[in-house]
Amino acid sequence: MKLLLVEDNTELAHWIAHLLRLENFAVDSVPDGECADMVLTTQRYDVVVLDLRLPRMDGKEVLARLRRRGDRVPVIMLTAHGSTDDKVDCFSTGADDYVVKPFDARELVARIKALIRRQSGDMTSCLACGDLRYICDTREFFHNDARLALRRREHTVLETLMLRKGKTVSKSALMESVFCLDDEPSADAIDIYIHRLRKHLANCSAQITTLRGLGYILRPQAIE
């Protein structure tokens, strides 16, 4: 899953981004409101973590513009005060949640995961494809009670396919979920990640099928 972090405090931004990458999130980070507004018109994210007070354009205006464009991406606001006025501003502008600085790292991660579950609507605590299981709360994959040890981008590709299991996912959609603004997107790299994942799933009843010219689909192997 891919997040946008909008925070002008460089040290805090680096800390949050590092924390989220440890949780297998792909993270883009920008330092001001104008950059955020521009990026949000061209990129798709699963969650936006947005500071309320930013240079060049405050977080409230970034959020207002996002909602006027009809973009319903979940947004967590970061606020330094947590006053009633700040909270009302956040929710009235269209925020889904807020976190008061300073905050505990575990709280931020928990709130992000809760937003993702809420956005998914009918997502249960566990998804399955054949004997492959995905635990939504921890974002871990298991086969026969054994946790799959996946690299970050392998995890992102398999997670994207699992969340859309039984549906075709284009290579461009996988590239968008895996690569951040500072990366050089590579279609060949997606082929490599798919190849590695097929090795991980070699003894699993879930399989990744290539639909030539369309993309990939995760589904249980057909029983002959």
From TrEMBL:
InterPro entries: CheY-like_superfamily (IPR011006), OmpR/PhoB-type_DNA-bd (IPR001867), Sig_transdc_resp-reg_receiver (IPR001789), WalR-like (IPR039420), WH-like_DNA-bd_sf (IPR036388). Residues 124-220 form the OmpR/PhoB-type domain. Gene3D superfamilies: 3.40.50.2300, 6.10.250.690, Winged helix-like DNA-binding domain superfamily/Winged helix DNA-binding domain (1.10.10.10). It comes from the Bacteria. SUPFAM superfamilies: CheY-like. It holds the Pfam family Trans_reg_C. Residues 124-220 bind DNA. The modification 4-aspartylphosphate is found at residue 51. Residues 2-116 form the Response regulatory domain. The keyword DNA-binding applies. Keywords: DNA-binding, Phosphoprotein, Transcription, Transcription regulation. PROSITE patterns: OMPR_PHOB, RESPONSE_REGULATORY. The keyword DNA-binding applies. This is Response regulator.
